Amino acid sequence: MIKIGDKLPAGTLQEYVEVEGNGCSIGPNSFEIPKLTAGKTIALFALPGAYTPTCSAQHVPGYVQHAADFKAAGVDEIWCVSVNDAFVMGAWGRDQKTADKVRMMADGSAAFAQATGLTLDLTARGMGLRSARYSMLVKDGVVKTLNVEGPGKFEVSDAATLLAQAKALA
């Protein structure tokens, strides 16, 4: 499992882009993790799935609500990572009103989740291999804080916890 001091694994995540520009076309675009994190501070949180109850009612809304506070604490971007395709993440982002606040990053094949060692097997619930629920603060590709939830919990990966950690490291 990834730990504090480790670099994020190389690979790609996808994001559904609504407006063409900055070298991005409308629709799903692939982004290389090392390039995307270079020289930036990222507040990354991951969750089991789009449109799931805790993720939609508590997890994403907290980060949307505190987006300006994260910026004030020196965070360049907030990422929500989930094992869903970019189309689903784009639609969920529209539903959650994440535009210009949280980047909805798709880990469609669970490659990032597997590379971090932060997976959750929900096969028995018909959802297959998913991401565990966690949050981390990443500076220049290196994990500075890591908050991994226990099974079925939502206690340490919330926006308030990661925001306090970002302020402490600023």
Automatic annotation (TrEMBL):
EC id: 1.11.1.27
GO function term, MF aspect, one: thioredoxin peroxidase activity
Enzyme class: oxidoreductase
Signal peptide region: none
Keyword Oxidoreductase found: yes
Active-site residues, record numbering mapped to chain: C55 (cysteine sulfenic acid (-soh) intermediate)
Transmembrane segments: none
One GO BP annotation of this record: cell redox homeostasis
Protein keywords: Antioxidant, Oxidoreductase, Peroxidase, Redox-active center
PROSITE patterns: THIOREDOXIN_2 (PS51352)
InterPro entries given in the database record: PRX5-like, Redoxin, Thioredoxin-like_sf, Thioredoxin_domain
Pfam families with a match to the protein in the record: Redoxin (PF08534)
GO cellular component terms attached to this protein's record: cytoplasm
Function comment: Thiol-specific peroxidase that catalyzes the reduction of hydrogen peroxide and organic hydroperoxides to water and alcohols, respectively. Plays a role in cell protection against oxidative stress by detoxifying peroxides.
Database matches in PANTHER family: PEROXIREDOXIN (PTHR10430), PEROXIREDOXIN-5, MITOCHONDRIAL (PTHR10430:SF16)
Record-given protein name: Glutathione-dependent peroxiredoxin
Organism: Rivibacter subsaxonicus
